[in-house]
Amino acid sequence: MALQVFRSTLDMHKACEQLHMSRKRIGLVPTMGYLHAGHVSLFRYARAHADIAAATIFVNPAQFGPNEDFKRYPRDFEHDCSLAEEAGVDIVFAPADEEMYAPGYASYVEVEHVSKIFEGAFRPTHFRGVTTIVAKLFNIVRPQTAVFGQKDAQQVFLLKKMALDLNFNIEILVVPIVRETDGLAMSSRNVYLSNTERQQALVLSQALFQAQKRVQEGERRCGVILDEMKNIVLSGRPAQIDYIACVDPATFEILENALKPQILFLLAVRFGPTRLIDNILISL
Ligand code: AMP
Predict the structure, then answer these.
(1) In a mutational test of the pocket of ligand 1, which residue from 32, 41, 42, 57 has the highest number of ligand atoms less than 8 Å from its CB?
(2) Which residue's CA is the nearest one to ligand 1's atom 14?
(3) pLDDT tens for residues 79-119?
(4) pLDDT tens digit sequence for 4-15
(5) What is the pTM for the complete model shown?
């Protein structure tokens, strides 16, 4: 099937309802475009777990703060469509802003508590925007499965919680972080980095891999590991460290000791004006 592109919610909804009637399972991959190999890995995963892979490309204004990069967020729709098609995507939904948020728009979905910490503490309305747009896409597409990246670990936690709390009955699948060969987690925002910042930013994955190594060696005191990580990050001369933390991925509670079945180290650090997030999930 050649790639189909829909711009209107109604057309997308109709196409998806047709697919439901012919008993096709839809795997949905929401993205903001400017696609890279991380997104491609989600598309392939969706294709492998459903009959139809549907990608959305929408730079969602509701998840950007007033002083954030909504206007200058990188966009390249033609390139995105060819990458998506190559990765086996069947349908792209790329609505205009007004299509998703008509004048007078007033309804939002919010997952309490965990949406206020870490990313939520630095980006107060961010997760409300994410959960709202994903809830809208779930209603338009009614997919059987939806695929998200571990790169945005807190987002994954909140979307799973939303799907459960609001009875969406959609299986949420999570794909591991795709990295550049030197370790930098792929991100559409990496284009903002100067050559120097790009080199400096390598300390993020180095700090996370060091944490993994220390846990594998048997260190269980999160404070000790976090201090080591902080020193590694500081060696990259970042503009600011927003947080470096160790949590239980099942609850997002801060851990003093790495004694859970899985532990998650996560960080947000700025290099120049660019804010990067990264994390590592470790199974004990
Ligand atoms: P975005 O376009 O940045 O909103 O990302 C769309 C989806 O791709 C989200 O589920 C992200 O977590 C996922 N994603 C972004 N970067 C990566 C990456 N490097 N590896 C895996 N998934 C990613």
Answers:
(1) 42
(2) 149
(3) 999 999 999 999 999 999 999 999 999 999 999 999 999 99
(4) 999 999 999 999
(5) 0.98
**Angle made by CA atoms 177, 151, 55, in degrees to the nearest 5:** 90
Give the residues across from 240 on adjacent strands: 270
Structure tokens at 28: 């949905």
Which of these, 119, 103, 267, 108, lies nearest to 201 by C-alpha position? 267
Instruction: Report all structural domains of the chain as residue ranges with CATH numbers, in order of start.
Output: 4-175 (3.40.50.620), 188-277 (3.30.1300.10)
Pairing of strands 262-271, 274-283: antiparallel
* Short-list 151, 171, 175, 149, CA closest to 160: 171
Active site positions, annotated: 39
**Residue 33 Cα to ligand 1 middle (Å):** 10
- 41 contacts: CB under 8 Å, gap ≥ 6: 149, 175, 176, 178
Strand order in the sheet with 262-271: 240-247, 262-271, 274-283
Is residue 278 in contact with ligand 1, taking CB distance under 6 Å? Answer: no
